[in-house]
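Q: What residues go here?
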């Protein structure tokens, strides 16, 4: 028998899998079909296991919190160009992280570049250099826009504009 919708050859009484999904008329009596199996259960007649489809959901959108600009009285505002210069010159010792208030990161960099370099014959020193280069890129591209206290790191333009206002 041939499907009138797609032209595919199908067996007598069989349902075609084309877009129309219409059953071909059969001359002889056909046994009633069993009800479709419930998703995720074993079907003994087909000797197969049907998996339940995975639930579809959208992950929550990341929440962006802008950096704080309400500096408290007497707070030393950090400048981005100072952090970049410190990262370039003394970055392997984590000085730029100490400047930005990231004491844990700075301490890890100091330990890796000194003690780690002795124990690994200098390999960890090069790893810290790569780490510092990545941090410099994030400072340049303004991916890092706040210090450890959550306050905005002042860019060069903002520092110049602030000095002009004074």
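A:
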């Amino acid at each position: 028998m041939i499907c009138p919708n797609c032209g595919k050859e199908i067996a007598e009484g069989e349902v075609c899998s084309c877009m129309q999904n219409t059953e071909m008329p059969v001359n002889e009596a056909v046994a009633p079909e069993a009800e479709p199996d419930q998703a995720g259960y074993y079907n003994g007649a087909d000797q197969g296991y049907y998996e339940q489809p995975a639930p579809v959901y959208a992950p929550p959108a990341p929440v962006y919190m802008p950096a704080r600009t309400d500096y408290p009285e007497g707070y030393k505002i950090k400048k981005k160009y100072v952090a970049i210069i410190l990262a370039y010159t003394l970055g392997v010792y984590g000085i730029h992280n100490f400047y930005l208030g990231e004491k844990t990161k700075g301490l890890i960099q100091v330990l890796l570049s000194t003690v780690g370099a002795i124990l690994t014959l200098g390999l960890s020193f090069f790893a810290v250099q790569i780490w510092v280069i990545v941090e410099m890129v994030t400072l340049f591209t303004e991916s890092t826009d706040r210090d450890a206290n959550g306050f905005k790191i002042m860019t060069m333009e903002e520092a110049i504009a602030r000095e002009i206002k004074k």
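A: Context that may help when evaluating the design: Residues 80-165 form one domain. The radius of gyration is 34 Å.
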